[in-house]
UniProtKB/TrEMBL annotation:
PROSITE patterns: N6_MTASE (PS00092), THUMP (PS51165), UPF0020 (PS01261)
Cleaved signal peptide residues: none
Keyword RNA-binding: yes
Superkingdom field: Bacteria
Domain THUMP, residue spans: 47-160
Gene Ontology MF, one: RNA binding
Originating species: Enterococcus silesiacus
Name of the molecule in the record: N6-adenine-specific DNA methylase
UniProt keyword terms in alphabetical order: Methyltransferase, RNA-binding, Transferase
């Protein structure tokens, strides 16, 4: 397969984050179309490498091998078999087939998976001249396939990412209810923070939001510290990733001084946060401090605060969590020039915080419906124009 071959690609994303993924792709110079839970685009091997390395808010990058409508299992079998699987799967490929079916005549997901697998096996047997009596070895490189049906429309994909993109490789340890790294990056991206302003997380836990802010501030590619499954495929040119990683390293601004702070009442979490920041080489970019939220004060102005406090989902926690929301309101309200962004599943948050949000945005933290309550601060005065 040539480097220049064009692939149909999809970046999958959590519900509510698709527009951010679309914006990230366009910022990388990749045109795309945003749909529910995904952004669709086209590109070469270099596009695949770039998207995997740079997308902060997506889950995975997949190759779309084929799309068609299917109303019977025979039709599914024949149309899957007609796809050029030998272009992607070597004779010894290990290729499990995941599946999902929504509002489709072929509603049995296990049947769709086994028929898809059987069709691919038949195709590969014919192409590689393997007898029907000998099973395919499946001892080689790993290719995660998926057959997804939505309203009788079938999309068959191969995942190029491997472990999800949120696995950046820096989290040595995590706290009780950790926020995924791509969700943390999304929270930073949804603020008005600029790298010359203070950034603060008052309930930082294992430090993920602060670390993602520092990666953004330094313009470090979030996938810089990890490998991707497509790098193990014999047809994927390793020089492509070398080139994209080298360019990413040149784009990083390691010298910029950032003002990022995280605090937490739990000293053990602060130790974990420091270790995680050290692991990715950002120990000097973030100040972590053990501090109760009610004790926070600052003279700084025009900063941005992002918090993912406990939601009180567990039995008996509601009262203490709502007390924390009240404290937040009392501590944050005097900071008129600061913008505050607080994520919680408690829809009565404003009542305890003591102020209506400027804006709310619905997001899903895993399967949990949450709202990002946004309180926008006063804008800095405009600098007078020089004559």
């Amino acid at each position: 397969m040539t480097k220049e071959k064009t692939f149909k690609l999809v970046a999958t994303a959590a519900s509510g984050l698709e527009a951010l993924v679309g914006k990230e792709l366009r910022d990388l110079g990749i045109s795309c179309e945003v749909e529910n839970g995904k952004a669709l685009f086209e590109g070469t091997m270099e596009t695949i490498a770039t998207a995997n390395l740079w997308l902060r808010t997506a889950d995975r990058i997949k190759i779309i091998v084929g799309e068609f409508d299917a109303f019977s299992f025979d039709e599914l079998f024949e149309k899957v078999k007609a796809l050029p699987w030998e272009d992607y799967l070597p004779m010894d490929a290990e290729f499990p087939v995941a599946g999902k079916s929504i509002k489709s005549k072929l509603y049995s997901t296990p049947d769709c998976q086994s028929i898809t697998k059987k069709a691919i096996v038949n195709r590969l047997r014919e192409v590689y001249h393997r007898p029907a009596t000998v099973p395919l070895a499946e001892t080689g490189a790993f290719f995660q396939l998926e057959v997804a049906l939505l309203k009788d429309h079938v999309t068959v994909t191969i995942d190029t990412t491997g472990p999800s993109l949120f696995k950046r490789g820096y989290r040595i340890e995590k706290g009780g209810a950790p926020l995924k790294e791509n969700m943390a990056a999304a929270l930073v991206a949804l603020t008005n923070w600029r790298k010359d302003r203070p950034f603060y997380d008052p309930v930082c836990g294992s430090g993920t939001i602060c670390i993602e802010a520092a990666l953004i501030g330094h313009n470090i590619a979030p996938g810089f510290n990890r490998e991707f499954v497509c790098e193990t495929w014999d047809w994927f040119d390793s020089a492509v990733f070398e080139k994209v990683r080298k360019e990413a390293d040149e784009k990083a601004d390691y010298d910029i001084k950032l003002d990022i702070m995280g605090s937490d009442i739990n000293g053990k979490m602060i130790e974990i946060a420091k270790a995680n920041a050290e692991e990715i080489g950002l120990g000097d970019s973030i100040t972590f401090k053990q501090l109760a939220l009610r004790d926070f004060t600052t003279e700084k102005e025009y900063g941005v605060m992002v918090a993912n406090p406990p939601y009180g989902e567990r039995l008996g926690e509601e009262e203490s969590v709502r007390k924390l929301y009240k404290e937040m309101g009392e501590v944050f309200r005097p900071l008129k020039t600061w913008s505050k962004y607080i994520l919680t599943s408690d829809l009565t948050f404003e009542q305890y915080y003591g102020a209506r949000a400027t804006k709310k945005r619905k997001l899903y933290n895993g399967a949990l419906r949450t709202d990002l309550f946004q309180y926008w601060g006063e804008r800095p005065p405009r600098k007078p124009r020089e004559e």
